[in-house]
Specification:
mainly alpha
Length: 123
């Protein structure tokens, strides 16, 4: 976009608008992701943020690949951008917890889901 002055949210909105895509998932490093899913800038549900699921960041190499792979598969399977964003973000977090580009297996994602559920129940 060539915009060095704006903050992430308006930049993501402009990228979403210009690209005319249905869903935009923007990786924001240790701050997680922002997902845009509507062309209406006044719709309060047009975007949402999800914090990172990485517990201990070792190396971010491959996090974008993991996000893209899991989010794409989840979006195709469920047609739900929220589920795609969560699973993609979980996969990215798992990738960050390993040194180098590590294969994020479904078993690792299921383990991460179990961990998040336990935290939600304060276990």
């Amino acid at each position: 976009l060539g915009d060095q002055d704006s903050v992430v949210r308006p930049l993501a909105l402009e990228l979403h608008r210009r690209s005319k895509c249905k869903t935009l998932i923007l990786k924001c490093g240790d701050r997680g992701i922002i997902t845009y899913r509507s062309n209406s800038p006044v719709d309060f549900r047009a975007f949402f943020n999800i914090e990172s699921f990485a517990d201990n960041v070792v190396d971010a190499v491959g996090a974008g690949d993991a996000l893209l792979a899991y989010a794409t598969l989840a979006l195709i399977a469920t047609k739900t951008d929220v589920i795609a964003s969560i699973l993609g973000n979980m996969a990215a977090g798992i990738e960050c917890e390993h040194d180098g580009n590590w294969p994020v297996t479904p078993e690792l994602v299921l383990k991460k889901i179990d961990s998040v559920e336990k935290q939600a129940r304060y276990e």
